[in-house]
Amino acid sequence: MEKFKNVMSRPVPLNSAHVDTDQIIPKQFLKRIERTGFGQFLFFDWRFNDDGSPNEKFILNDLRFKNSEILLAQENFGCGSSREHAPWALRDYGFKVIISSSFADILYNNCFKNCILPLVLNEKDLEYLFESTLNFNDYMLNIDLEKNLLADNKGFKIYFDIDSFRKKCLLEGLDDISLTLEHSEKIDMYEKKL
Amino acid sequence: MAPLTLFEKIWKNHVVHEEKGKPSLLYIDLHLVHEVTSPQAFEGLRQAGRQVRRKDKTFATMDHNVPTIDRYNIKDPISLQQIETLSSNCKEFDIELFDLNSPYQGIVHVIGPEQGLTRPGQTIVCGDSHTSTHGAFGALAFGIGTSEVEHVLSTQCLWQNKPKTFEVRVDGKRQSGVTAKDIILSIIGEIGTAGATGYVIEYTGEAIRSLSMEQRMTICNMSIEGGARAGMISPDETTINYLKERPRIKNIENLEQLINEWRNLASDEGSEFDKKLILNADKMAPQVSWGTSPGMVSGIDSKIPNPNDIEDSVKRKSTEDALSYMGLKPDTCIEDIKIDTVFIGSCTNGRLEDLIAASKVIQGNKVPSNINAIVVPGSQIVKIKAEQLGIDKIFKDAGFDWRESGCSMCLAMNPDKLSPGERCASTSNRNFEGRQGKGGRTHLVSPVMAAAAAINGRFTDIRSLDLDLGDY
Predict the structure, then answer these.
(1) How many CB atoms within 10 Å of residue B376?
(2) N or C, which end of chain A has less CB nearby within 10 Å?
């Protein structure tokens, strides 16, 4: 897997709670048999009008946040279906970090498998990020995973919590299956008892 | 020994490797596979030159893309490609497949229990969030992503952080017409769609114990809609009676011993949970969802909430957005909502008891001509058994379409879908925007409530019809 590097970007503020994976990638795009090319379908029903033109009211189409690598969302991001097409689409579109006050379980897990850092912040800090990125046109956020550091260009700085094992996997781009195969003997032993 | 919960017993029995500060490596007893979330996993195996470690613990079926009118005539070329890809992958990796020609084909969470693949004490995974269904048998069952599907195919194990435990106790006795679906919708309404994130729920209490296996599956199925990693119910005589006649179980040599082991899995007296919620079924009303998440739900005898009454700004905005999408006005009586379409089916409510109960409501009635109503059995076995009982005839006489098994309109990956603005009384599990088709408006209800809505063209309190629904 690709290694996670520092991210510096103006975050895009998606002011919705309980964004489900059916919105992140609608079901008509789940039929591909590849892992790639899903970015064009990200938030499809919100991003595009019925005639295929971009929905200008949707925040991802706001030019101020073009090419952003950090997505801000309200609580319980990624609930619903287990489809890994959701993080495939998010990553392929260009997002490397998603920040919310909480994530749904399966999507949270799936992010780590796809070199996306899902960051949980408290509501106050999240609110600050939402306001700042809307208020300052030069707003930039820096995420340094090695140091657990989130800092902006306005003097705001916090150290975030992240599971140390998951952090290591992201930074080193470790492949889960290879890690597991190091324990092959233990799996063999377990199976002998069955 | 300290008393343990069902979850703790299963977890302990499946840890292959653990280290402080890391997730545990868990052994997986049963891996179910379907066509949508597996192609990239098989491709990953091929690229790395890896094999499927335990073919005997891996089973596949096709359900999401399957047309329910003419199943052999898949017009969408991409759907067809997914179906064919699963067939060729199962052939290449030598995995048992319940394909469109199999008399046992059906929705993955219907056929696992039906065949007796699902058993108490197992760890069960599938690339599908409704895998929680299998927890009804006292298994630890949860949905995984495609990377994890590949991981399980290749290693038969999974890295998991240990979730916390949550007891949801439902005391009391349901009124007639209040079903398992209404219990689980009430629970989600109470805790919210993220209320159980990070937890495994065990459902306990008199109102749960009195449910049949099929109804217990409805409860566990929707655990994920409350954010839970899994939902489970301790095995008891109801579980054992259901399982001992199943095709893959009835001929097991030491079945009696196995059954005793199942009995011992139930949570011990005095075992403790990290979190607890107690509800009472006595006062529960049949539920109808009015918004765009399964937590946005009310009793049939109440009104749609008014966003102006909500203090929390994020919650208020969610409610406003939901009502705008659903085309509903605040303070409308639920019974005044008219519907266009009725869908009875899905892994939540597409089993035989669901169809029997709905048919009792339909019997002798007609669906108005402006309403489109379909019934989609959860599996070919459900379909055949229902036809043997003459249930198909009751539905057809009333004006329902009687279909072949599959996921159908639950997620609109096949030809069954809603048009923009079309309003549906649905027995499925998700009312997200566009879930049943772009612009479609979904109201989640029980099969008997869906049936009553089909006849009256609007939501109707099933209790007012005064029908004998037996134990359903």
Answers:
(1) 28
(2) C
Residue range A74-118, pLDDT digits in tens = 999 999 999 999 999 999 999 999 999 999 999 999 999 999 999
| Residue A117 bridge partners (DSSP) | A97
Burial class (CB within 10 angstroms; exposed 0-12, middle 13-18, buried 19+) of B373 = buried
Residue B371 CA to residue B341 CA, distance in Å, equals 5
How confident is residue B384, by pLDDT bands cut at 50, 70 and 90? very high
**Interface check A15 vs B, CB under 8 A:** yes
CA gap A45, A22 in Å, rounded: 10
The pLDDT confidence band at residue A1, using thresholds 50, 70 and 90, is confident
Sheet holding B341-344, edge to edge: B401-402, B372-375, B341-344, B423-426, B441-444
Integer Cα distance of B409 and B201 in angstroms: 28
Contact B140, B4 (CB under 8 A): no
Quote the distance between the C-alpha of residue B135 and its chain's center. Answer: 11
pLDDT of residue B210: 98
**B317–A27 C-beta distance less than 8 A:** no
User: Which residues in chain B touch residue A109, judged by CB atoms under 8 angstroms apart?
Assistant: 144-145, 148
Please say whether the beta carbons of B277 and B248 come within 8 A: no
Cα torsion for B90, B92, B94, B97, to the nearest 10°?
20
Distance CA A152, CA B77 (A): 48
Helices (H), A42-183: 44-47, 85-93, 105-112, 123-135, 164-172, 176-181
Mutate which of B33, B53, B130, B197 to test chain A, going by most A C-beta atoms within 10 A? B197
C-alpha Rg value of chain A to the nearest Å: 18
The alpha-carbon gap from B390 to the nearest alpha carbon of chain A, in Å, equals: 35
For residue B333, give both structure tokens.
């009586």
- Residue A20 CA to residue A79 CA, distance in Å, equals 5
Name the token pair of B44. 């990953």
Chain A, window 20-39: residues with a beta carbon less than 8 angstroms from a chain B beta carbon: 20, 22-23, 26-28, 30-35
What is the model's pLDDT at position B452? 98
- Chain A contact set for B127 (CB, 8 A): 82, 84
B106 pLDDT band, cuts 50/70/90, is very high
The answer to whether A76 faces chain B, any CB pair under 8 Å, is yes
DSSP letter at B379 equals B
For A46, B118, B148, B201, B341, the CA distances from B31, given in Å and listed in that order, are 35, 10, 11, 21, 35
Check residue B1 and give its pLDDT.
81
Residue among A89, A5, A4, A81 at smallest CA distance from A46: A89
CA B27, distance to chain mean position in Å, is 24
Q: Is A55 on the interface with B (CB under 8 A)?
A: no
Helical residues (DSSP H) of B204-252, grouped into ranges: 206-209, 213-221, 237-243
In angstroms, the CA B353 to CA B389 distance is 12
Determine which helix (DSSP H) or strand (DSSP E) holds B183, and give its type and residue range: helix B180-191
User: What residue of A is the nearest CA neighbor of B42?
Assistant: A33
E-assigned strands of A25-146?
Answer: 70-73, 97-100, 117-120, 141-144
3-state secondary structure string, B106-140?
ECHHHHHHHHCCCCCCCEEEECCHHHHHHHHHCCE
Q: Are B167 and B274 in contact (CB under 8 A)?
A: no
pLDDT single digits (tens) B295-320: 999 999 999 999 999 999 989 999 99
ipTM for the predicted complex comes to 0.93
Query: d(Cα B200, Cα B339) in Å, to the nearest integer?
Result: 35
What are the φ/ψ torsions at residue B93 (nearest 5 degrees)?
Answer: -100, 5
